[in-house]
Amino acid sequence: MLTSLERPKTLKETSLERLREAITMGYFLPGERLVERTLCEQLGVSRTVIRECIQHLESEQLITVVPNAGPSVATLNPHEVQEIYEIRTMLESAAIASCAAIASETTVATLEAYCDKIARSLLDHDIKQALVDTRMFYHTIFSEGEKWVAWDLVERLNGRIGQLRAVTLSSKGRSTAGPRNLRAITAAIKQQDPDTAAEACAKHLQQAMTIALNELQKPKEDVLDG
Amino acid sequence: MLTSLERPKTLKETSLERLREAITMGYFLPGERLVERTLCEQLGVSRTVIRECIQHLESEQLITVVPNAGPSVATLNPHEVQEIYEIRTMLESAAIASCAAIASETTVATLEAYCDKIARSLLDHDIKQALVDTRMFYHTIFSEGEKWVAWDLVERLNGRIGQLRAVTLSSKGRSTAGPRNLRAITAAIKQQDPDTAAEACAKHLQQAMTIALNELQKPKEDVLDG
DNA sequence: TTTTTGCATATTGTATACCATCATACAAAA
DNA sequence: TTTTGTATGATGGTATACAATATGCAAAAA
């Protein structure tokens, strides 16, 4: 019996995924030094594989490599975060507007289902699941509008602010405000109202950015306290 | 005497630049297979370095890597090209509008100088120089607005349509229309008129996209002819 | 003739060993 | 206190080896 017809993943692929996850989920701290040999042992692969992963992560700007000194986890400054949210606003607003103009009923139903699921996850404090489903919510929207290039960019930008997003989602009051915004977006799409949908998106991201920028300050205070 | 205080570039860096240039300038054809050993000999470096470059280029989507079959130069379909120009329009319009709101006189003077230089290069059919200076024109605008993340995205998107851009610039009638558009953008920035500036940008890119999409059809006809 | 099978070859994925150079931290000397 | 060595460890880069996979081509079958 055939249990899997999929191509087996290469070691580089799986290692890359694990490293990416470790960085975006905050397992490695911003600025933390990544030593090749250590990563080899932790992932059980050769230096060859690790070095290839490092090139990928560098290109994705999840890590910074200074020649002869090696890679470390990328750090974000407030200006970068602000810019990332600005660009996300442009890309996501446009995608949502496109989607609103053409969305089928099944798509709207899918979006509504994700809204419910996300709200439940947040009530259960299951942040990780909420992140996954939020991603799927947007993925549905970008797919409907066939915005594949834009989706790719959004994913990369989100990767860079991954650490912040987790905290943003779990932030105080966000467990109700977030889903409320997503429902507003969904409602506007349902009514085929591109402008309202785009505006709801912009408002949503504006709120998220404010929280993220606040979050970015906190760690510094911790250092000063200690 | 010290002739250079700069850090010497690593082999990976120079190799990557050369490969990127070779692809974006069309030295390698879209879809063409890239064999590691061959690249090693052509660049005079080891397989390790080439493989690291491949990771970078894959992440930049200049090449496509299928496991166990190796890398080949990425191909573009019309939908992707259209999307890339759409996104460029968003990012560049926004940057230009920001720039228009704050631009200093020296910046405007710099932009005007680039417009002249580009026009001259095009009259001399020096496409490569025109591309370089067009890049600098936009770089000036994004720098003025401190849009570094956006600039990075624009550069990557431009890399993907590099082959098309060269032909677009040298296209019939483009040697006057292109600079005229850039001058319109510059003029609007000079008058601190963000809306007009953004609109001029959108119009410019709309024209460029039309030419690029036409260009994308041509090679197929060649195949049919042969 | 056309299609299928099977094999030889080329290429990739991965590991390992090696070395020169560079960075860093720490000890010694000024 | 500042400077200078110096030891250690990490990186940039090379070479080599080998299994697994892909590809092209020839032989066999239809």
Strand order of the largest sheet of chain A: 1-2
Total E-strand runs of chain A: 2
Q: Briefly note the CATH topology name of the largest domain in chain A.
A: Four Helix Bundle (Hemerythrin (Met), subunit A)
- Secondary-structure-based class of chain A equals mainly alpha
Approximately what portion of the residues of chain A adopt beta-strand conformation? under 5%
Structure keywords:
homodimer; about 230 residues; mainly alpha; Arc Repressor Mutant, subunit A; Four Helix Bundle (Hemerythrin (Met), subunit A); two-stranded antiparallel sheet; 10 helices; about 75% helix; disordered C terminus; DNA-binding
Describe the protein's architecture and organization.
The structure is a homodimer. Chain A has about 230 residues and is mainly α. Chain A has 2 domains: about 10-75, Arc Repressor Mutant, subunit A, CATH 1.10.10.10; about 80-225, Up-down Bundle (Four Helix Bundle (Hemerythrin (Met), subunit A)), CATH 1.20.120.530. Chain A contains 10 helices and 2 strands; from the N terminus they run αααββααααααα. Chain A has helices at about 10-25, 35-45, 45-60, 80-100, 105-125, 125-145, 150-160, 160-170, 175-190, 195-225, and strands at about 65, 70-75. Chain A has a two-stranded antiparallel ribbon with strand order 1-2. The first copy, chain A, is globular. Chains A and B meet through helix 3, helix 4 and helix 7 of A and helix 3, helix 4 and helix 7 of B. Chain A binds a DNA duplex (30 and 30 nucleotides) through helix 3.
